[in-house]
Each structure stands twice: as C-alpha cells, then as structure tokens.
Write a structure and sequence with these properties.
The complex is a heterodimer of chains A (386) and B (397). Chain A is of the alpha+beta class and 386 residues long. Chain A contains 12 helices and 10 strands. Chain A has 3 domains: 113 residues, Acyl-CoA dehydrogenase/oxidase, N-terminal domain (Butyryl-Coa Dehydrogenase, subunit A, domain 1); 86 residues, Beta Barrel (Butyryl-CoA Dehydrogenase, subunit A, domain 2), CATH 2.40.110.10; 150 residues, Butyryl-CoA Dehydrogenase, subunit A, domain 3, CATH 1.20.140.10. Classes of the chains: A alpha+beta (386), B alpha+beta (397).
C-alpha cells in the first residue's frame, strides 16, 4: 500500500498545473461564458503542443501512451483551475472508446487528429427524461442496405457546435436479433444533423443535437455488434472517475481560496477565520476533500490496473457530487455577499456544479450500480475487503 | 501508488481470520463497553490477550528490540483493521497498554520501567493491563488545566487528586497518570509530569461511574496521599505534556481500527437488508451506499495517515481530522441502523438474552454510545480546532 504518486506520473500532473498557473485565469473562463467561441482555444492549443491532447493515445497515432491514471491527474488540474478545454471529451472519453473498440480506419480518422491537431470529438449520449437513475436511449439506428440510419434527439452534447467528430449512442436490432446499443462515428459534415445551443450557466457549451434520417456507412459502427450495453456501462464508470477528479481539483481550489479569505477578511477587529464556526466549516470541507481524493485515486488506480472498478467508480462519483456541491456552496456562503458577484472567483466553481454532478451519472445512477453489486455479493458480505 | 496490501500482509490477514474462527464464538461482534462491564466478556478478553501474546500479536507495531513483531506498516494496518472488524477483544491490554503506554515507554521510559512493564503488556498478563488517567472533573478538553498534584518531597512525591472518566480502571493493574508537579510554572503545560501509578497502592480508591446503559465502564480514581518515587516518573519532571502528546499521537494512529469497526456494523446492516429484501427501498439503498463510501473514505484516510507516519513524516492534524470524521459517521451509521431495526432499537442493552434483540444489539449500542465516543480521546470540536489551527492555519488572529 503506497499513497505516493509515481515520479513520472507526478510530472504530468505538475506540468499541467504549471501550464494552467501560467496561462489560465478565471477572468478568461468568465469571458468564455459570455462568448460563443466555446472553449479556451489558447490553452487548448498549448495543450496540443505539449502532447496533452494525445496523452492517452498510443504512439502509433502520435500519442503519449499515457494511461487512465495520467488522464485523471490532468483532470484534477483542469478542475483546480476551472479550465474549459475539450480534454475530457476528446482526449479521454472518445479517444479511449475509439482506441479500444474502433477499426483501424476509425482510429486513423480520429486519433491522430486529436493528438496532432487537437480535433474535438464528442459523445452524444443523454436524452430527454424525467429520471436519470439510468441512461435510457431512444435514438434509433436502423440497417438499410449497407447504410445505417439514425433518428433521434440528443441533449447536453458537449461542443457539438465545435466538434470535428461526433459519436452517437443509439439503440437498434443487433445481428443477434436483440435490442442492443450501438456507438456510431459520424463523418464530419454528414447530412441530417441540426445543433441548437442549450443555455447553461457553466462554461461548457452544451447542445441539443437532432438526428433526422442521418445516413452513415455501416462501418461507422464502433465495437462489436452486441457489446454496446457493456461499453456504455464501462464508459460511464470511467468517465465518472475522470469527472470526480475534476471535482476534486475544483473543490480543493474552492477551499484554498476560502481559507485564504478567512485569514484576510476582518470583522469585529479580528479575522473571520478566528471564529470557531468558520473554522469548523472549513475543517469539514477539508475532511470531505481528503476522503474524496483517496476514493478517486483508488478508483483510478484500479482502472489502470485492470481490476474491477464499478463500485469504486460509483463511490468516487457520489462522493464527488456531494463534496463539490457542499464545498462550493459553503465556500460561497463564507465569502459573504461578495461571493455572490460575477466578479468574485468562487462563483466560477459553484456554477459548474450541476454540470459536473450530472455528467457520467448522478447519485441515483451510481447508487443503483453499487446496490446491484451488493446483491451479487450477498453471501460474501461479512469480511469482504474493498 | 498501490491500494493493494503486500502478499505478506494478506497472509497475516488470513492468519488473523483463522485465529478469529478458532478462538472467538461464531459471528462474534464487539459492543462498546461490554468488555469492561461484563465479567465473562473481560475473561474472554484476557484469555484472548494471552493467546494473542503467545503469537506475538499484542505487540505487532512494537520494534523487535522490545519483543515486538517489527511489523511493516501494511501488516499493522491489516492487524488494526482485522481487530476492529472482528472485534478481537483484549488487543488493547486495557485502555492503551499496547497502543500507547508501551510505545511511549519505549521512548521516554527508563530501562527499569521498560524491563518491568513491557513484557507484561506483550504477554497478555493481568499485570500488563493499563488505564489512562488524564481527565478530571474540572479538566476535560482543557487537559492542561489538570490539578491532581504530585508534591515533591525530597526524591519522592505525595500524590493527591482525582481522575474521572477513567475507562477500565476497575480492571487495571496500572494507571498512566498525568499529574501536576509544578504549580508555579508560568505556562500550565510545563508543570505537568507523567507517572506510572500502581493501582494497588495504599490511598488509591476506584469508584464506578455507571453510564446510561447501566454499565460500569467509567470510573473515578481518588488519590489520597499516595506515595510515588522516581521509579514512577516517566521522562523528566515537567516533561509530562510532551510525553502525553506522544502518547496521544500513538492513540490517534490506530484510526483504521475504528473505521473497520464501523465497516463491520455496516456490513451486518447490508446483510440484514438483503436477507429481508429491503434493497428495493430507496431510502435504505441510498443510506447503505452513502455510509459505505463514507466509511471507505475514512478507512483510506486512516491508512494514509498510518502510511505517512511509517515514512517518518511529521503529522499533526490528520489523526484529529479522522477522529472528527469518525464521530460524525458513528452518529450517521447508528441513526440509520436504528431506522432499519425500528422499535427494536429500544431493547435494554443489559438484557443480553432477550429474544427481541436484533443484530446482537450492536445497533442500539452504537447509538447510545455515540455521545461518549464523540468525547473520548478528545471531543469532535476539539479535533476540529486542531485541524483548523495546524492543518488550515486559520485560527491565528
């Protein structure tokens, strides 16, 4: 058992942090909120140049051959500095999907371009629903001759207005005759798609994507014909850990700025940090963050080691959802009225909370995942060590 | 980075589980305070301590030169986890014998003291059972304000005063005692010395303090003109606060043990829920999952603290952070447990044979004991003050 991050891994983390300290500013992040550009293009260009865009892509496609844990550490830094870049969508989530399940043709079409040019690849997943304790897909795929026709409506698709590549998750009849999920890589400029910006409070540009008779070649399918359901489960579990890492970094930043404020702000001739209630709130925030860190790192480690990770991923995400909301909310409270202004920094972190919380599974979703594992392990509960 | 335990540590875990299977009653679970109150529990604790001592397992964390296992930090973590999880009685040798009296004596004790006391603790002897005399009626959280006075008389001391909340004093051979030796010291901390008190000394009187469960766990110790010599003093006169701080740091490094105890209770609740088809109940599912991940997070943080200590890192706030966290989780877990078992939560703890008792009474025991756990070893709020001051550094004005 060892809690130290390996030297070269830590270098990736450190370098990312140095880049963001130098180039990122919450001022920029706030500007992106108002602009339609969509993301911090200057920083993303730098990240591409430094190899971060291809961090987890194999060398064959000009990547750095990093592993999942490396991506997790970069996500932590992205969260800490509230940077808005398509690293999660392109470099982590989609790159992983294409690398593991894609055909050679698909890999060539996508991976090299992400690594070299910083192409944006985004996954269209969520659909309208009243209950997000499960991900329900109604967008359909249909085989017609040697084409696949897609029909449906996706929401909260990140960067759809800027993306170079879109991957769509749809359900249809697999070759086995069963209802199965499939993932499809859409070629750039394909007909039948319309995107509409959804007005969200965070900085990430989310879109509604309508697919109206979108026709793609049958070799657009990613992965095996009947593997879609498992692919989705694993993708969400891994994505959850990446998001939990981003929330870990962000929560730590929120705590740091609040502790600093508490040491500086004076009322009643003393710092507000000298009051016990303020201290105890900050301590509870620290305690939650320290606990979150260990859950995130353990989940990340298990994924990198090829060990079962569903429960650990769920725990990390639920803890992150609770911690990020609690910490950012209370941090704003401790900043007084000033905290509530557009000018103050803490708001940048709080307004991301509902995006982060619902990305890759909210609490209800992951509770289901974990509870399912409880039932599977019923006979070996007493004495089981995580 | 590695979240697995070494092969050696896992082997040790298997040996400990074999021990539990062979030496303890089936499905044995430990309830707070039972060992000190019930004679049969105490007898099992002492019997188990002897058996642990024979295997060298009472002194897992002690260096080899003092008869310890010289265990790696991983083996220590595994040991503390298994002791906490299965509730292996007697591992403490009273309150603190193995955890902090022994280890602190190794640093501050004289050769005679080490020779006299360490083997008894290590072997599970009745002469190796200790209680810890810190708190007084007027000195709880503000321990440094203690008034028990060891008046210097030549080379000896005359001890007068009173301790309270002394767990297991009625079962202990020795008391690890904090007393004032200098009433004039400008800083109250500097007037304190640490003594080994022989509980059989003339002038020592132990009076039970019965708790809300009707159990005898706490005591008052009255000291009336008790004679102490240099051989009773641990470290230098006036060095007591430093010795206490060291002992407290040992006390706070076995956090994994308490997290594991909560994990066991949670697992019992999980099993109960599955057996009674309750996982479909959204509130129960939500509560089990939430408590599970919180306890896992606590255990990982405690492991990390132990890991830092093993690397020689100077840690100050982490054990306090973990203790405060634990206290909150005790309350949450116990509250949920009582929701699960409903009206059975009100069964009288001292009626151990009642057919109405659920899960061997562990749920209501945790709930009623919660406030005491909150206070023991430093209150939750004191812990938070320490983290604020030394971890966040916000309390300096």
């Amino acid at each position: 058992m060892d809690f130290e991050i390996e030297k070269d891994r830590n270098l990736i983390k450190k370098s990312a942090r140095e880049l963001f300290v130098k180039e990122a500013s919450l001022e920029n992040t706030r500007d992106i909120y108002w602009e339609s550009g969509g993301y911090d293009q200057k920083i993303w260009k730098k990240m591409v140049g430094l190899g971060y865009a291809g961090l987890c892509i194999s060398e064959k496609y000009m990547g750095q051959e990093g592993d999942f844990f490396d991506a997790v550490l970069v996500m932590e830094e992205i969260g800490r500095h509230a940077v808005e870049v398509p690293f999660f969508e392109a470099s982590a989530l989609c790159a992983d999907l294409v690398e593991e399940f894609g055909t050679e043709k698909q890999k060539k079409a996508v991976l090299k371009k992400i690594a070299n040019k910083g192409d944006i690849c985004s996954l269209a997943l969520l659909e309208e629903d009243d209950d997000f304790s499960a991900v329900k897909i109604a967008t359909e795929y249909e085989r017609r001759d040697d084409k696949i026709i897609l029909n449906g409506r996706k929401i909260f698709v990140p960067y759809a207005g800027q993306a170079d590549h879109l991957i769509v998750c749809a359900c249809g009849i697999a070759a086995s005759g069963e209802d199965k999920l499939g993932f499809f890589l859409l070629p750039p400029g394909v007909q039948g798609i319309s995107v509409n910006l959804m007005p969200t409070i965070g900085t990430k540009k989310y879109y509604e994507v309508v697919l109206d008779g979108v026709a793609v070649d049958k070799d657009s399918a990613i992965g095996m014909d009947d593997g879609g359901d498992q692919m989705l489960k694993d993708l969400l579990a891994k994505g959850a850990v990446l998001k939990a890492a981003e929330m870990l970094g962000g929560a730590q930043a929120a705590l740091d700025m609040t502790a600093k404020y508490a040491k500086e702000r004076k009322q009643f001739d003393r710092t507000i940090g000298s009051f016990q209630v303020v201290q105890h709130k900050l301590v509870d925030m620290l305690t939650q963050i320290d606990g979150l860190r260990n859950l995130v790192y353990r989940a990340a480690w298990k994924i990198s080691q090829g060990m079962p990770y569903l429960v650990d991923s769920g725990m990390a995400k639920i803890k992150a959802n609770q911690t990020y909301n609690e910490v950012c909310y209370e941090a704003m409270v401790l900043h007084g009225a000033y905290g509530w202004t557009m000018e103050a920094d803490i708001g940048v972190y709080l307004v991301r909370a509902k995006d982060l919380e619902n990305c890759c599974g909210n609490n209800a979703y992951h509770e289901q995942v974990i509870a399912r594992e409880y039932e599977t392990d019923a006979n070996s509960i007493i004495g089981k060590v995580c | 980075m590695n979240f697995n335990f070494s092969h050696q540590a896992e082997k040790f875990r298997s040996e400990l589980r074999e021990f539990v299977k062979n030496e303890l009653p089936e499905d044995y679970i430990s309830l707070y305070g039972d060992d000190e109150h019930y004679d049969d529990h105490w007898a099992l604790a002492m019997k188990t301590a002897r058996k642990l001592g024979q295997k060298g397992w009472l002194t897992v964390s002690w260096p080899k030169e003092y008869g310890g296992m010289g265990a790696t930090f991983e083996e220590q973590v595994v040991f503390n986890y298994e002791v906490g999880y299965w509730g292996i009685p007697g591992a403490g040798m009273g309150i603190g014998g193995t955890a902090w009296v022994g280890p602190t004596l190794m640093i501050y004790g004289s050769d005679e003291q080490k020779k006299k006391h360490l083997p008894d603790i290590a072997s599970g002897s009745e002469d190796g059972v200790w209680c810890t005399g810190y708190s007084e009626p007027d000195s709880g959280s503000d321990l440094a304000s203690l008034q028990t006075y060891a008046q210097r008389q030549g080379d000896n001391y005359l001890l007068n005063g009173q301790k309270i909340w002394t767990s297991a004093a009625h079962r202990s051979r020795w008391c690890w005692l904090a007393a004032r030796t200098d009433r004039e010291a400008p800083k109250k901390h500097h007037g304190i010395s640490l003594f080994i008190l022989d509980m059989n000394s003339p002038g020592v009187e132990v009076k039970p303090v019965i708790n809300i469960l009707g159990h005898h766990h706490f005591n008052e110790i009255f000291m009336n003109n008790v004679e102490l010599g240099q051989e009773n003093l641990v470290g230098a006169e006036g060095q007591g606060w430093e010795v206490i701080m060291k002992a407290l740091s040992f006390e706070r490094s076995i956090g994994v043990r308490y997290g594991a105890k909560l994990k066991r209770i949670l697992d019992e609740l999980k099993r109960f829920a599955i057996q009674h088809n309750l996982l479909g109940n959204a509130h129960i599912k939500h509560s089990l999952v939430t408590l599970d991940l919180e306890i896992e997070a606590l255990i990982l943080c405690s492991c990390e603290t132990a890991w830092k200590i093993s690397r020689g890192e100077r840690i100050i706030y982490e054990p306090s952070r973990d203790k405060a966290n634990l206290d909150g989780l005790v309350k949450r877990l116990a509250t949920f447990g009582t929701e699960m078992i409903g009206p059975y939560s009100q069964m009288l703890p001292s009626n151990r044979k009642s057919r109405w008792r659920k899960l061997k009474g562990v749920v209501e025991n945790l709930y009623w004991s919660g406030p005491a756990i909150n206070t023991a070893g430093g209150t939750t709020n004191t812990m938070r003050n320490i983290v604020a001051k030394y971890g966040l550094r916000v309390s300096a004005e």
